[in-house]
Amino acid sequence: MHIAPWLVFSAITVVAWGIVGLLQKLSTNLISAESSLIWLVVGFLLLEPFFYPGKTVFHYSSWNLAWALLSGVLNALGAWALFAALKSGGKASIVSPLTALYPLVVIMLVPLVLNESISRLQLVGVVCALIAVALLSS
Amino acid sequence: MESSNRLDPDSDSKQHWNAPWFWYSMICVLCWGGWALLSKLGSREVPPETMQFLFTVGTIPVGIALLIGRRGRLERSPPGIAYAVLNGILSGVGGLTLFAAYHTGGNTSLITVATALYPMITVILAISILRERFRPIQALGLAFAVAAIVIFSL
Predict the structure, then answer these.
(1) Residue A118: predicted pLDDT
(2) How crowded is residue B61: how many other Cβ atoms within 10 Å of its Cβ?
(3) What are B68-127's pLDDT values in tens digits?
(4) A113, part of any domain
(5) In angstroms, what separates the C-alpha of A118 from chain B's closest C-alpha?
(6) Are A37 and B58 inside 8 Å of each other by CB?
(7) Which residues of A touch B12 (CB under 8 A)?
(8) What is the structure's pLDDT at A66?
(9) Least CA distance to B89: which residue of chain A?
(10) Cβ(A59)–Cβ(B37) under 8 Å?
(11) In this structure, what are the phi and psi dihedrals at residue B93, rounded to the nearest 5 degrees?
């Protein structure tokens, strides 16, 4: 059976982020959500020496470098908005599944931004996954 | 993460549109949707390691803004800090493989949805390690997740 490379990489992401979900529970039991995010950035920074690109970074187009930087800004802003939602009275049982539906934004924008489409069977898989994400996050 | 539960259940359902938490949640959804899409756009050319390096640089201003917001005051709980730092390391590893998945040229929607299935691992770990109660809704969620994974691997 041939498994697509993207699915193998995605499976590693799922396992790593799944453990992150557990660590998030453990850390926010002891420190505030904002502190957790600040120390999370420290954790990111510890990895930076391993990924330092040197001068090769200037070989890529400035647009693609901007997308990469902006993706970090948006990810952290999203985490801040999640904390703000919980702090301003949102129940975790509603806010968590609601915010876990961010792939919907991607699915809606992909046909406009990228020339990609999915088969009907894959669409069924996407619907199953979105239902799973909402149920598992609640 | 804790919620302060200041709204009662009835007002929750009636005032979604007026409640600040709802709009903060929508900001979160838009930001994370934008993050995933921009990750794909950057990954078309930039290799995963460089993407992760630049992504981290992007998170620094938000970390600093939060630090300023707290006037530099952080709780002194070594285990709490250790968990959060480890969180960052593992998030970085997961981010790296996400960028690698996008870099393969695989379908953006499928990769984004597949990687969003990570709560299934959290649920399994929370039940086996933290001894949290296994709720029927989670069992249903796991069943849908398995169905999605089987379909994606066809």
Answers:
(1) 83
(2) 15
(3) 998 988 888 999 999 999 999 999 999 999 999 999 999 998 999 999 888 888 888 888
(4) yes
(5) 8
(6) no
(7) 91, 94
(8) 95
(9) A43
(10) no
(11) -65, -45
Q: Which amino acid is at A61?
A: S
Residues of A in contact with B1 (CB under 8 A): 24-25, 28, 33, 82-83, 86, 92, 96
The shares of helix, strand and coil residues in chain A, as percent rounded to the nearest 5, are 85, 0, 15
B63: how many CB neighbours lie within 10 A of its CB?
23
Q: For residue A96, which of B76, B128, B28, B58 has the smallest C-alpha distance?
A: B28
Its ipTM equals 0.89
Residue A105 lies in a domain: yes
**DSSP for B85-134, written as a single string:** HHHHHHHHHHHHHHHHHHHTT--HHHHHHHHTTTHHHHHHHHHHTS----
Closest chain A residue to B57 measured between Cα atoms? A69
Range of the domain at A95: 91-138
CA distances from B121 to A85, A110, B85, B143 (A): 24, 27, 20, 13
pLDDT digits (tens, 9 = 90+) for B62-79: 999 999 998 988 888 999
Residue B46: phi and psi, rounded to 5, are -80, 130
What is the number of domains present in chain A? 1
Q: Look at residue A71 and tell me if it is in a domain.
A: no
pLDDT at B8 over 70: no
Q: Residue B21 to residues A79, A130, B66, B116: CA-CA distances in angstroms? A: 13, 22, 18, 22
Helix axes of A5-30 and B119-128: crossing angle, nearest 10 degrees: 50
Count of CB atoms within 10 A of residue A12's CB?
17
Predicted confidence at residue A100, as pLDDT, reads 84
The answer to whether residue A52 is domain-embedded is no
pTM of the model: 0.86
Residues of A in contact with B96 (CB under 8 A): 51
